[in-house]
Amino acid sequence: MTDDSRVSELPADCASCKLTAVIGCYLLGAMSLYNTRTPEWKGKPLARLGVQLFAAGCFYMGAARMFNWTPFTLEQIRRRREGNN
């Protein structure tokens, strides 16, 4: 049984909070990709791949935050708050 009053108390997502998070994720991803282009990464293909995967994750988190994809969907937040993972 769910408590609808508690679920309806979710705060509205403000645009400035969302935009700050998106810009931060994109900047972190771009900085990571840019740094893998330096000569010190030339002989380390696996380490470079790891940093590039990290950058891809940052880009996904930025897009997910902007468009409310997983893990930022309202339904998932409601389930977490109710304790029903």
What does the model show?
The protein is mostly helical and 85 residues long. 67% of the residues lie in helices and 0% in strands. It contains four helices and no strands. The chain crosses the membrane at residues 15-34, 46-67. It comes from Plectus sambesii. This is HIG1 domain-containing protein.
Entry keywords:
membrane; 4 helices; HIG1 domain-containing protein; transmembrane; transmembrane helix; mainly alpha; single chain; 67% helix; 85 residues
Short structural summary:
The chain has helices spanning 4-7, 15-35, 45-67, 74-82. It is an all-alpha fold and 85 residues long.
Would you identify the regions where 5 or more consecutive residues have pLDDT less than 50?
Answer: none
Q: Main β-sheet: number of strands, strand sense, barrel status? A: none
User: Approximately how much helix is present in the residues?
Assistant: 55-70%
How many strand units?
0
Encode the helix/strand succession as letters.
HHHH
Oligomeric organization of the protein chains:
single chain
What's the overall average pLDDT, rounded?
81
Tertiary shape = elongated
SS strand fraction:
under 5%
Quickly count the helices: 4
Structural class based on helices, strands and sheet pairing: mainly alpha
Cα end-to-end separation: 14 Å
CA gyration radius, whole angstroms: 18 Å
